[in-house]
Amino acid sequence: MKTYPVNRRSFILATLAGGAGALAPSFSFAQVPGKAVALDSVATSQIIEQASSFPALQTMIVYAGGQTQIEHRFHGPAIDRPVNVKSVSKTIIATLAGIAIERKVFSGLDELVAPILSNKLPQDRDPRLARITLGNLLSMQAGLDRTSGPNYGRWVESSDWVRYALARDFVDEPGGRMLYSTGNSHLISAMLTRKTGRTTLQIARDWLGEPLDITIPPWPRDPQGIYFGGNDMELSPRAMLAFGKMFLEGGKSGGKQIVPAAWIEESWKPRTSSPFTGDSYGLGWFISYTPDGKPFYYAWGYGGQMIYVVPHASVVAVMTSNTAAPSGRSGYVRQLHDLLATRIVPAAEAAIG
């Protein structure tokens, strides 16, 4: 099974530029063909055949050449039925944060967290809490000990998720190494609620659901009623595709600008890298590379819930999987990357010439 290395030069240059992702990766938004083109039928059959060998894979949609090329249910719920997308929720929340900046709800990535959530700060707080920014939360560089992994259970069993997340010990400086933590995304949900006076569900439906014409059902909330900011959102595979296509098309859907194009560029700048996979991370998106060094961007939820966006090949691929088993340490997510990078992308490149 192939693995794809981080483009170390881009990542190092971005880091040297100040750790804030000042250098964008070399990509341009999709140039979708004016007339839809079909993928080669043999290539399509090979994609489905390889995908069908993955026991956990439930659905797959491939959009390329300006149209949906594959829409296949292997097993599990129907392709238009909302399913738990797990940590893809983090990418949705990050997108809402980008729209909030555009709408002046937040001042920018440098917006400080502490003043917004001041009533949730611990009394004997570490002075570094005052330095954590919205951008730190989005890039998983808050410096606070994680609420994911072995710490997740204690966090979600606590009586106040926001207060608990803010009371974690510092294990690095704000802006330091990547510490993947669902609590970071939940703090963003709390900040959105505090600043707008609306629930994150209302905001998601208004800013994404309605303009994309997708259904966003209610999902779990914390004991204070804040919608879970980093997990357990539900979207159908077709809704996931609509979200991914919007990113492919520079933030537009139906001719309307839903997400600022500049936000997508910010989201896809490598700011840090995962200690578990080595892949780069931007603002809610992971970044990896095809064997010939071209970037692709992915939202990743536990078990193998995936939204892939590949600008150079005008591809969006959606995959949903059984949520009961891990996809990282099992190697399954790398199998999905391999399917994308060695089957789907070459087929799309051949079709669009």
Could you walk me through the main structural features you see in this protein, from its secondary elements to its overall organization?
By secondary structure, the protein is an alpha+beta fold. Helix content is 34%, strand content 14%. It contains eleven helices and twelve strands. The strands form three sheets. It has an eight-stranded antiparallel beta sheet, with helices on both faces. The model is unreliable at 1-27 (pLDDT under 50).
End-to-end separation: 27 Å
The major sheet is characterized as:
8 strands, antiparallel
Estimate the strand proportion.
Answer: 5-15%
Oligomer: single chain
Fraction of residues in helix: 25-40%
The total count of helices amounts to 11
Structural class from helices and strands?
alpha+beta
Low-confidence stretches: 1-27
| Strand order, sheet with most strands | 2-1-12-11-10-9-8-7
Order of helices and strands: HHEEEHHHHHHEHEEHEEEEEEH
Shape: globular
The number of E-state strands comes to 12
Rounded mean pLDDT is: 91
Radius of gyration: 19 Å
Relevant terms:
single chain; 353 residues; alpha+beta; two-stranded antiparallel ribbon; 12 strands; 34% helix; disordered N terminus
